[in-house]
Amino acid sequence: MKNLLSGALASIIIFTCATAEASVGDLINIQFGLTNTTPSYTGEAMYGSAVQTWNLYDANDSVPPLGLTLSTGIASSASVTVNFDTIGVINKSYDRFSGTADDPLMRYYALTYETSAVDFINLDPDATYTLYVYSQQATNARNPQTIVSAGGTTVTLSNPSTGSPLFVNGMNYMAISGVRSDADGNLSISYSPGSSSQIGVLNGIQLLQTSETATDIGAEGGSEGPVPEPSITALLGIGAFFLTRYQLFRKKEDSFLSL
Length: 259
Prior knowledge:
Elements: H1 2-17, E1 27-33, E2 55-58, E3 66-69, E4 75-82, E5 86-89, H2 103-106, E6 108-112, E7 116-121, E8 128-134, E9 145-150, E10 153-158, E11 173-180, E12 187-193, E13 200-202, E14 204-209, H3 230-258
Parallel strand pairs: 1-2
Antiparallel strand pairs: 1-14, 3-4, 4-7, 5-6, 6-13, 7-12, 8-11, 8-14, 9-10, 9-12
């Protein structure tokens, strides 16, 4: 009985000390195009490592929602559905990124004529993210503007007026921080043509997780660690019950031996 109780208590202790693997730092990358014609992009764009995995949202082959892979190449539980009217490609003569390593990302885009949505599902619930959005039209486009909204923040992106640097913050890319998933792990983004533009485009998306779920974050913003599950609380109660019974058993046994 002693061995049985010791084993049971050890199992309870090990189980209750185990914590979920942290997801902070997880990065999801998405590019747009066609499998047969769009070169795979493996660069860092404005965040990540020099070589990383990008998910290709294929206009022909992708059946929404598209299952996503993390930048490390590990499969993610998250999926995404992107609404668009067509996949566009910039003529090389008007391609700002022509001949550069970032061309596979910035030459192809999802195009919309009205407000369209990008919907992520099965993310960590109540977690915060930083969203990187990329939007570049042909250099000869008239009044190119794309409006992107996420997490209560709305930004307008347009083509940079000069040739260098290639990426210009607030023009052909923007980072939006503090975007939060809901209690079911859903997160939505919208994009649309600007007031002076006929089309809105998205060349790429990066979604970086910056916090754990809300239940793991204290009221002051500090990490309090995982909240015990009801099953864990029940196991602790069972363990305490058996420990008490065992102690009573030992007392009776010692009294018997002392007679």
